[in-house]
Design goal:
Helix content is about 70%, strand content about 0%. The chain contains 6 helices and no strands. Helix 3 runs antiparallel to helix 4. It is elongated, with a radius of gyration of 19 Å.
Length: about 180
């Protein structure tokens, strides 16, 4: 029950201030989750189409790195710099998966475009996480959001992602502190 009289209106001072770090985290987490989905979809695609064991293993590793980035995001307090690094790492791993998708599928217009879009998403995420922005620059974050959306669209056109597709959860595998520090989480 409130201590205020019923006719008192809430003052701006009474409302909790929105947490800017939490708002930034939501954007970084959404990008990381999207990149992780792209990597897992490429992995699933190439395994479904009989990839060589080495290619399949590398794609699984890229998807696992994305899953690790998501796990780190979910286990820590909001921090724009750290959160943007997780999104950057997921985007970089998804670009590696896209390269494997291109290697597996062979060069074609949609496949090449999907690989280029994945690289652009990775570069945009890196810029947003860079030392000058530290995950808090609105313009760089918006550019990274647009690049990630373009990478998803390109992956759909390449046949790596099917609309409405559901993928099994990817295991994070070994998550020792040493491994996490090597990945800059």
């Amino acid at each position: 029950m409130s201590d205020r009289a019923p006719d008192e209106k809430a003052t701006p001072e009474a409302r909790p201030e929105p947490d800017p770090d939490a708002a930034l985290r939501a954007g970084h987490a959404a990008r990381a989750k999207s990149a992780a989905f792209r990597a897992a979809a490429v992995r699933h695609h190439i395994e479904r189409h009989g990839a060589e064991q080495n290619t399949s293993w590398k794609a699984a590793h890229a998807a696992r790195v994305c899953a690790q980035a998501l796990a780190v995001l979910s286990e820590s307090a909001p921090d724009p710099a750290a959160d943007s690094r997780c999104a950057r790492n997921a985007a970089a791993a998804a670009a590696q998966a896209a390269q494997l998708g291109q290697l597996h599928d062979g060069e074609s217009g949609p496949v090449d475009a999907a690989y280029r879009a994945a690289l652009e998403a990775s570069q945009a995420a890196a810029a947003a996480a860079g030392r000058d922005a530290l995950g808090a620059d609105e313009a760089l974050n918006a550019a990274a959001d647009r690049a990630e959306a373009a990478a998803v669209t390109a992956a759909e056109r390449a046949g790596w992602i099917r609309p409405g597709q559901r993928l099994p959860e990817m295991s994070t595998g070994l998550r020792s502190p040493e491994l996490m520090s090597m990945l800059h989480f």
